[in-house]
Structures are given as C-alpha cells and as structure tokens.
Amino acid sequence: MLSGGEFHLEEDPTDAAHTFADEIRREFPNTVEKPLLRLVPGAGGLSVEPLVVGVVFSGGQAPGGHNVVAGLLDALTRANPASRLIGFLDGPIGVIKNRYIELTPERVEPYLNTGGFDMLGSGRDKIEKPEDLEACRKNLTALGAHGLVIIGGDDSNTNAAVLAEYFKANSVPVCVIGVPKTIDGDMKNDYIEASFGFDTASKVFAELVGSICRDSMSARKYWHFIRLMGRAASHITLEVALQTRPNLAIISEEAEARGWKLMDVVDLIADVVTRRAKAGKSYGVVLIPEGLLEFLADVKAMIAELGSILGEHEDYLKSLTSHEDRRQFLTEKFTAESAEVYNSLPDGIQEVLLLRDKHGNIPLSQVETEKLLIDLVSDRIREMKAEGRFPGSFSPLAHFFGYEGRCVQPSNFDADYCYTLGYTAAQLIRGNVTGYTVSARNLTAPVSEWVMGGVPVTSMLTVEMRKGKPKPVIRKTLVSVDGKPFRAFAAERDSWVEEDRFAYPGPIQYFGPSEVCDRLTKTLMLEHS
Amino acid sequence: MLSGGEFHLEEDPTDAAHTFADEIRREFPNTVEKPLLRLVPGAGGLSVEPLVVGVVFSGGQAPGGHNVVAGLLDALTRANPASRLIGFLDGPIGVIKNRYIELTPERVEPYLNTGGFDMLGSGRDKIEKPEDLEACRKNLTALGAHGLVIIGGDDSNTNAAVLAEYFKANSVPVCVIGVPKTIDGDMKNDYIEASFGFDTASKVFAELVGSICRDSMSARKYWHFIRLMGRAASHITLEVALQTRPNLAIISEEAEARGWKLMDVVDLIADVVTRRAKAGKSYGVVLIPEGLLEFLADVKAMIAELGSILGEHEDYLKSLTSHEDRRQFLTEKFTAESAEVYNSLPDGIQEVLLLRDKHGNIPLSQVETEKLLIDLVSDRIREMKAEGRFPGSFSPLAHFFGYEGRCVQPSNFDADYCYTLGYTAAQLIRGNVTGYTVSARNLTAPVSEWVMGGVPVTSMLTVEMRKGKPKPVIRKTLVSVDGKPFRAFAAERDSWVEEDRFAYPGPIQYFGPSEVCDRLTKTLMLEHS
Fold it and tell me: pLDDT tens digits for B269-304?
C-alpha cells in the first residue's frame, strides 16, 4: 500500500448506513455522520504544506508503538520536509500540561522496531474535564499544531472523538486521529481487523505456554494453571489455545453464554484432571483468561451485592477487627447464594475484595484467579480421592503472563502494521479530517494489498450506562462464541483433553522463512477465511 | 570437530595430576586414576563392531536433550549401521525396571532441535541401592548392551560413576558415560566449560526480563521483583543481569561471601528503591536468584535450629492447633536471633517451613522469595515514608521464571553443543572407556575447533558430609566472586541503579545474522576471555 508515490482519500462506498443513538448525535453534533475513508494511490487533495502534528501514547503498552511514530514522522516529512512532529510525554497528561519533545528522525530512528513506549512514556489520564479540554486547545494552538494522533485503545479512541468534537465546536483547526492499540485484541470491527500489539503479545505468550506444555509432558508430574492477560475479552487466551493446544482453555465469553458459576468451572477442570489421571497422566496445562471471574454469574451477583453492602456498611465493617467477624457480618447480609460464593473463597481473597479501589470498585482483578482455581480444584480432588474416585496425584503450579508481552519488539506483522498505521494517520491529517480512527482491512493479504483509511469514531460508538448515566463508548469486541476462531477451537478441543496434542510455536522469528516469520495469528486468519 | 572422517581417543597431556581422597579411592578402586581423554581426527582404536547402547534422561529438563540422543544415534550408526540405540523411559527408573523403546532414525528425527525430554521422559530416581544396581546389570546384560549414556547433572554424573564402578567390579562389560546437563550452569570445571541448556534457558529468561525492563521504563510506575530458577548457584541470575542490566541483581554467592543477613538484602533493595524514587523514578527491576535464602547467614542458622527443634518436638508442635501457639513455642526454643528472623517472616511462610519434605528437609525452596522480599521491603518503605524519608510511590509486582526455560527448543549453540556431546559419548563407548563424563573445551571458538573428549568422573569428585557420612560428589560450581563474570557485573552495576541502562536481548533467533543467532552467553565469553 505504501509503495512510493502519492495518495488521496476517497469516500468508501462499501460502508453501511449507520443509525446513531440520540445520545451520540447530541454529544457529537459536529463529528457525527462522516464518511468512511479509504487511502488510494494517486495525488489529490492532501496538504503539501508544512504541518505540525502532536503524538501521544495512551494506556498500557503494546508492541510496535514506536513504529507508529516512525511511520507518522516519515509520512509527514516525505510530504513536506519542513513538517514537525511533537511527542507529548507520559500520556495525555503531557498534552494537558504541555510537556513534549520534538521528534526528529535522529531521535526516532533508534526506536524503530523496538518494543515499549519509553520514547515518550504513556499514561492513563483522560482528556475529559472542561479545563483539560481547554488546556489542550491552548497548548496545541500555541504550538501551531494541525493535528494530534492519540495511540490508544477503545477508551482513548473515544477520548479522541470527544477532543475532536470539542475542537470542531470551538473552531480549533486541529485534527484528532486515533490509532487502534491493545494487546487484548478487543478493539476490532468491520473497519479495523486488528488492534496492534495483539499479534506479538499472543505469540510471546504462545511461546511460553508451548514451552510449559512441553515441560509438563516431559516431567509428567505437574499441572500448570496459566492465567493470561486480558481484562475483559479472552482473545489472547483463545489465540494462545489455538497455537498451543493445551488440555483445557477456559473462555470467559463461553462461561457467560452458558451461565456458568464458579463451581461449574471447578467441575470442568476437575473433570479434565480426572480423565487424564485415569489415562495415567498426572500432568497437563489449563489456560485461564485474566477476566474470567467477571463473567461468572454467581461471582458477578456476589460482587454486585458486596458493592451495595460496602456502600451502606463500609465503616462498620472496617470497625470489625477480625476477619471472622467481617465474614460473619457479610454472610448475614448476602443472599444465600452469594454468601456461599464468598465463603468458598480463600480468606486472603475474601479480605482483598473488601478493599475498594480509588474508583470505588471491588478489586476483582487483584484476585489471582489461577491460584483460586488451584485451591478449589485441589479441594475437589481431595474429596474425590477420599472417596476412591481419583487415581494418581495432583501437583499444580501457577503462572501469570502479561507484563512479559507488552513491551516486546514487534513481530514482523506488528512492525509493518504499526508503521502503516502511523503513515496512514499522517495522510488523514493531511486530508484535514478529524474524529477518525485509522482503519485497516484485508490484513491477511500481502502488505501491498492492505486497505488503509479512516473510520469516524462516532460510527463505532454505542451508548452504555456508566454510573447511572448514558455514555457513548466504543464497545470492547469480545470473543464471539459464534465466530470462526471460537468454533475452530470448540471443534478441536475435545481431542486435546486426553491425548497430548500440544504444539510449540517457539520464539518470534524475524529473519527466517516467511512461513515462520510472517505467519498471522490464527484469530485473524480464521476471522477472514 | 565433527567434520567427517574417523576419530580416535588420545590421553590428554594437559591434565594436571590429581590427589584423590581416601574415600574416593576406597569407593572407586576400579575407575579412579584414569586419564583425561581427547577426541582427535584419524582412525585408530575405536570399535567398528555393531554396538548396543542405552540412553536415559535424568533429572530436570534442559533445552537440547533430544539433540544429544540424535548425535549419539548418528555416531553409532555411522560407525556401524547395525548398531542399536535403546531409550530408557521416565529416567533411571526405566533402566531399573527395564522399560525402554528402540530408537531408530525415524523415531529420533522428528525430535531433532526440539526442546523437552518428552521423547523418553525423565525422572529423579537414583541407581544406588544394591538391588537397583543389580537390576541394571541384569537388564543391560540381557539387552547385550555395550554402553549406557546418562544425560544429567552433578548428581546423575556421580551416579554414572557409581554404576561404572559397580560394573567394573563385577566384570560387566557395559561402559557408563555421563553427559553434563543443567540449565543452572553449575556443572562446569576445567574439563567442561558449560553444561548444556544454560545458554538457551538464560537467553529465554533474558528475553523476558528485558521485556519487563522495557515495560517498567514505559509504564514508570511498577517495581518488578523477578525470581529466576537456579536452586543453588546464581549463574542464571548473573548471566541475565549481564544481558539486561536491571537496576539491581542479588547474587547468592556474594551474599554468602559478605555474610549478609536477610535484613541486609532488604536494606540493599530499599536503598536502591529510595535512590531511584529521589531521582523521580518510582519503577525498576530487581533480580533474585531462587536459592538466595539458603545463602543468608541468619536464615541458614534459623533453618538449622528449626531442624533440631522439629527433630525433637515435631509431634508436640503438630498437637498445637493455632499458628500463634506454634509461633510462641518456637520463639522460646530459638536463639534470640533466629527467633527474630522467624518472626520477621509472613505467617504463611512461618507455617510452610514447619512442613518438612519426604527427605526430612525444611522446604525453604517453597518460599516465594520475591514475595517475601516485597513484603519486607514494603514494610521498610512504609516506615521511611512515615518519617518523611521516602518520596514517591512503591508498587511492586512479583514474577518467577523457571519452567518457561527448561523445554524451549535449543539455541543454535545448544543445538550444536548437544549434538556434539552425544556424538562424543558414542566415541567414548566405542573406545571402551567407562566412568567418564563427556568433556568440552574451547567452546568460544568455532565448532570445528571445540576440544571434545572425556573426563573421568572420579577426577571431578570431592568428599562432602551428607547426613553425617562422607560422600563423594561432584561439587556444584557456584558463582565465584573472584571470577571474571562476577567482576564484570560488579564493575558495571553501580551505573545501573539510577540510570536506565536496561538492555533487551529479544527472543532467541535461529536464522538471522550470526552475531544475533550464534552469540554466546556473556558468562562463557568472560570466563574464557
């Protein structure tokens, strides 16, 4: 797509008509109902003036971020060597506080193809409060900026739309463009086939899980419970399962669709462990998505009740000095089922849940779900053993992989993809459009056939109730149990239970045969097969 | 070294004269005082008869084990196509119980360059009891075996010597040869420059640690406490530190040499965290070797006392129903210093230490040292904060890497090295020598210049007191604080504390430029520079 020459933007006729919720029309009067845009070869309509553009990382790291910046800088300076790129520091707070560095080719070049966001840092602040919106206007105007590129996930792209709308409403000539980033893989839709970082991170986790599968099968004495990052969607767990074929992989979305409770998951794991024990295999691997607990019916209900109880009685609970007293008090307040769920948790976890975070949320994500499941499954197997229903032994080990995959140097796919995303973001700013996220389609084809362009953020917005108020958001795309990746997994997984069908993808390769170095994720291939 | 043609074995004149302890002369009368052997090009003296050879994996997995088998098989069948290789299953117990499979080229070929020991399985049994020695004799004789290759670490190679001596004493014509394996890197000496697996495993851990360093520097809000496998020696931690330059790496052998106590380590970490906090950096990475606690003076003393107390009062302690009662009883029995150490540990760890393993040992290795240190450092920083001596925040995260590195496909170095080790083992059996471990020198040179051969296991034995009795063992080679790798680390590390000097080795590469794919460990290069 980027092979030399000039481009222009054209309206994409393939886009379906949208119906916009009133909430979205009301909040985005100036940026709603814009066309889907496609970047196509041939000069026309894109600015060749020197441009000043800002760029900022928002949220958690994902492999390839530095290449987005490199693509952006190359595209800007290729269109006009006098163009300037401003890198805001430590995330959106840098735009608000006007902290930045000038990004020259000399500064960016050493970061090409490196992992991390350390060239600029990142942060989780949002540009939402009126005074922050105003500060951004002031700072960008003072810099003479024509555009701002926000590299982030669903929330950050929503934030880009808010900022674009604010600028448009106030006649500020700064285009705001989002770039889809998240290793979780949950920012994808008809316009964006993949968020960057998912390819690399899932391959790193698959490398590690594959090695542990091989270790399990060599040592023949451990059960490895491996939790994988991904707060909401289970895309990573599904992709890693497709790449490595563990004995069992729990998918949160399936658990929710089937209305599973915590003990259903325990039953499922205990059943697989028992079937293997009966086949003489006291070892295996089970994958657990980080966000699982939030998808389990009884845990969700218990957490909701706990929220209400804490809302009403937090001070009294804090005044109780012993864990046992707190437990008893809560048991009386809970419904019978929630009391049972709460009391089935280990003491430490019972206490952790009482410590609400600064947003007032129950810190369910602090629960080490793999260890909780090890505890509960161990109890179950002890009972079965006492009843003579479990042969063999059960020695579980816990692992959590997450931080290991966020700052890896990008795979060849993510390296190309990120550079292309940045390059495209520059063209959208040259085209003077705002409130868009870079779109990317046909990614299973060779790079030269990728269809790049822009999708209006408003086209991706839906309205969700947050804290009792309607709020436009880009909904996270969860694993669809009707989608091809899940169906491929579901069709195969039974054969993984008793047989050792493990696969070992190995470390990401950059230099070798294309089938090794440039292979796509199974998710992407299946979704577009 | 292996470039075509025939070989013979010659006595190596470079070997120093040995003095053997009486204990070793007494236990190994038939296999002591043998010459160091070197494999050199040119035919002469090696059997060209068809040979039957057994091979067995012993102990924990290390990358490259399958290549040892492949090299062994190739060498045997190249010398005589009628030779046979027998693979014993699930470790030494397979030799005792006569469980094996025939290893044909068709069976071995798919495992070439793969990780794991799953072609045969492994196990930790030892061939020591008279009836087990006799069973091995019987089984190997029935197979018509000429040799047995034991792929294992220090204990397994000692075990090879015991078996060789037993066979020699009983005129059993089976040669026993050991191959030096362990990711921990602690089986090395003048004859063996590296144990196989260390190169690959340390590179996998360095990949992960490097990514976490980058994550730390990008997110700028977490302190990562990373424990790395290696029960005794800190070679892995030292190598990973040299490859990634974390802010702090604790080396057990230095801690012991300096007589550090647990609180000295806590002080050291707290000091580094504070220095960085004062420089505005509330993030960083600290590496902790798995075996650290066993090297700390006060912990060692406490564990020794606890062993005595448990020996005398275990039943009474078990009769106490509450943790507090047990703690109080122990506090009275301990010396004041051990009581203080014991009571400084979190409750859970205090209890874990009371559960002796099946060998009667205190299970110190079950302590998650990185979490213990996080607890203790957090307490320290809370105090300092209360006194206004600590600016900034401290958000620690715990990691443990071990199982991830044991079954990876071997690096190019380990792939070549393992194949060569197996190839050489075959030549030693063809030369009809027994009680030898394959030796390997000049490994920093190109493969064609490696000096391969055999070292009598007895030359590596020293006598240690175990359970009150003198026992010949191959002593684990720990990190020398006078050695070049440690000195290189010590010379550099101060500059890693406040500045971010992190390095990111990335995943192991197989296909690219030689400086990427064939780089040696820093340890090996420094030791032989």
Answer: 999 999 999 999 999 999 999 999 999 999 999 999
By C-alpha distance, the chain B residue nearest A89 is B218
Residue B1 has pLDDT above 60, yes or no: no
What is the residue range of A342's domain? Answer: 296-366
A207 contact B CB<8A: yes
Q: What is the overall mean pLDDT for chain B?
A: 95
Q: Say if residues A129 and A409 touch (Cβ distance below 8 Å).
A: no
The whole-number pLDDT of residue B3 equals 56
Of B12, B74, B154, B184, the catalytic one is B184
Same domain as A278, residue A220: yes
User: Within a domain: residue A54?
Assistant: yes
Q: How far is CA B161 from CA A53, A210, B437, in A?
A: 71, 35, 9
Please tell me if residue B518 touches chain A, with a CB cutoff of 8 Å.
no
Rounded Cα–Cα distance for residues A204 and A386 (Å): 40
Q: What's this model's pTM, rounded to 2 decimal places? A: 0.96
Query: Which of B90, B117, B183, B211 best probes binding to A when mutated, by most A CB atoms within 10 angstroms?
Result: B211
pLDDT, tens digit (0-9, with 9 covering 90-100), for A110-165? 999 999 999 999 999 999 999 999 999 999 999 999 999 999 999 999 999 999 99
Q: Which residues of B touch A406 (CB under 8 A)?
A: 211, 215, 218
Give the whole-angstrom CA distance, residue A460 versus residue A456.
7
Is residue A361 within 8 Å of A352, Cβ to Cβ? no
What residues of chain A lie within 8 A of the CB of B516, using their CB? 511
CATH label of the domain that carries residue B334: 1.10.10.480
Tokens encoding B328: 């109080």
Asked whether the beta carbons of A472 and A23 are under 8 A apart, the reply is yes
Question: Is any Cβ of chain B less than 8 angstroms from the Cβ of A507?
Answer: yes
Asked if B452 is an interface residue toward chain A (Cβ–Cβ < 8 A), one would say no
Percent of chain B with pLDDT over 70: 99
Q: What is the DSSP letter of B110?
A: G
Residue that terminates a domain, selected from B449, B466, B483:
B466
Q: Residues 409-438, chain B: which have Cβ within 8 Å of A?
A: 409
Residue A219 main-chain phi, psi, to 5 deg: -80, -30
How high is the pLDDT of residue A3?
56
> Does B257 share its domain with B308?
no
| Tally of structural domains, chain B | 3
Q: Residue A321's pLDDT is what?
A: 87
- Is residue A315 annotated as a catalytic residue, yes or no? no
Rg of chain B over Cα atoms, rounded to whole angstroms, equals: 25
Say whether both A114 and A125 belong to one domain. yes
In Å, how far is A413's CA from the nearest CA of chain B?
16
**Cβ-count burial of B503 within 10 angstroms (0-12 exposed, 13-18 middle, 19+ buried)?**
middle
What 8-state DSSP symbol labels residue A13?
T
Size of the A and B interface in Cβ pairs below 8 Å: 126
**DSSP for B26-63?**
HH-TTTSSPPPEEEEES--S---S--EEEEEE-SS--T
| Distance in angstroms (rounded) separating the CA atoms of residues B453 and B427 | 9
- The verdict on A304 and A332 lying in the same domain is yes
A189 plus A74 within the same structural domain: yes
Q: Which helix (DSSP H) or strand (DSSP E) does residue B284 occupy?
A: strand B284-289
Find the CATH number of the domain harbouring B526. Answer: 3.40.50.460
CA dist., res. A490 & res. A526, Å (int): 13
- C-alpha distance from A61 to closest chain B C-alpha (Å): 7
Pairwise CB contact (< 8 Å): B511 & A507 = no
Residues of A in contact with B404 (CB under 8 A): 208, 211-212, 399
pLDDT tens across B76-87, in order?
Answer: 999 999 999 999
- Interface confidence (ipTM) of the complex: 0.95
Distance CA A370, CA A377 (A): 10
Whole-angstrom distance, CA of residue A408 vs CA of residue A411: 9
Q: Are B396 and B371 spatial neighbours (Cβ–Cβ below 8 Å)?
A: no
